[in-house]
Amino acid sequence: MDRRSSKIFSKIIGIGSYMPEFRLTNSRLEELVDTSDEWIVKRTGIRERRIAMGKATWEMGLAAAQAALADAGLPGEDLDLILVSTVTPDSLTPAVSCVLQDKLGASHAAALDLNAACSGFVYASDVADSYIRAGKAKHVLVVSTERLSGITDYTDRSTCVLFGDGAGAVVYTASEEPCGILSTYMRAEGSLGQSLFAGALPSEPDPLTGDRTIPSNYRFLKMAGSDVFRFTATAVPESIDNALSRAGLEAGDIDWFVLHQANLRILKMVTDRYGLDPEKVYVNIDRFGNTSSASIPLCLAEMKEKGLLKPGQTIVASGFGGGLTYGAIVIKL
Ligand code: UT7
Fold first, then answer.
1. Do residues 256 and 317 share a domain?
2. How many domains does the chain divide into?
3. Which residue's CA lies nearest to atom 14 of ligand 1?
4. What percentage of the chain reaches a pLDDT higher than 70?
5. For the chain, does the N or the C end have fewer beta carbons within 10 angstroms?
6. Atom 29 of ligand 1 has which residue's CA nearest to it?
7. Which residue range is the domain that position 36 belongs to?
8. Of the residues 26, 115, 118, 179, which is catalytic?
9. Boundary-marking domain end, from 127, 144, 178
10. Same domain, yes or no: 113 and 228
11. Gap between the Cα atoms of 318 and 256, Å rounded
12. Hey, which residues does 257 pair with through a beta bridge?
């Protein structure tokens, strides 16, 4: 599929983020569970993560969306579509996107939430791109907002050291310039879904275990970390290779690799696999931990703030995680 056959491109015109102020440090986690700063840093690269402390998922998403719209210089009423990726919606209905549609005064916008877990931002960007290239939308807001602290079990050392809260947002607009999203590649491996699980509506009997009693930790994230880690070793290069080849590019043509921040070792694996200058692989997992789908737009917002993003540069962004899902997009600024 040659995605460059359409004359319309989805160009990024605004980026924003919101990070809660409260920092949960490794030393604080040492007081909660049997862990150590040394283990966490060595095995994950994480030093601290932010915690929403009472802020709702929609509130973080709204702040990120407002920042992205301000950056774009676009009023909410000009939006045609609002896509929110989250695994931690405040309610099953209304969707977070509908709450934002109201708060942003986006009176002409359709709104829907999308759950592709940690791949949510790249999946939502792919949907945004499809609407724009089909001529169904001119301006699309993608918001990835996650309050993982709400589904984290702070007695489980294998997960509680990993996750944090935050939100990032991007505004895409239809453009005839040959820039913006150049290619996308999305996949899922549902057969591995149970390796990263968080319950929603309990059913009787529990379809996973056959048990009739729903455990009190049903809603908490449970992860077979090493299984997911193994999956990333093939899924991440597969998504990057295919997105690059669909864009007619090679790794050497890319200015920035912006990957889901799940583990510093995964970022290093990609750096080695493509023989990259480590400076080209953006890292903020040390300060924010794993924020699921928010992690890629959070990176983009921080890179923009630091003046690292320049017109004409090319980025490959790769997301992977719950589902299991994975995917990559190539974006020219
Ligand atoms: O965002 C979605 C996508 N997520 C990912 O891609 C995550 C992929 N997985 C990972 O990043 C890693 O698997 C983890 C960071 C989750 C775990 O690292 P690991 O090197 O795979 O550790 P492990 O689960 O194999 O555990 C190794 C040891 C175990 O002890 P034994 O059995 O060897 O005695 C664990 O009990 O480390 C122990 N351990 C800990 N020790 C201290 C697990 N968690 C901790 C901890 N502190 N927090």
1. yes
2. 2
3. 225
4. 96
5. N
6. 158
7. 3-178
8. 118
9. 178
10. no
11. 11
12. 281, 316
Report how far ligand 1's centroid is from the alpha carbon of 191 (Å): 21
Q: How far is CA 123 from CA 71, 255, 313, in A?
A: 22, 22, 22
The CA 229 to ligand 1 mean position distance, Å, reads 9
Q: What is the pLDDT of residue 32?
A: 96
Residue 290 is among the residues annotated as catalytic for this protein = yes
* Residue 9 dihedral angles phi and psi, to the nearest 5°: -120, 155
Q: Which CATH number is 287's domain given?
A: 3.40.47.10
pLDDT tens figures, 45-93: 999 999 999 999 999 999 999 999 999 999 999 999 999 999 999 999 9
Nearest CA to ligand 1 atom 48: 157
Ligand 1 atom with least separation from CA of 223: 16
Which residue, judged by its Cα, is nearest atom 41 of ligand 1? 35
Cα(183) to centroid(ligand 1), Å: 33
Other beta carbons within 10 Å of 275: 8
Instruction: Report pLDDT for 211.
Output: 72
Q: Looking up tokens 């690059």, which residue turns up? A: 244
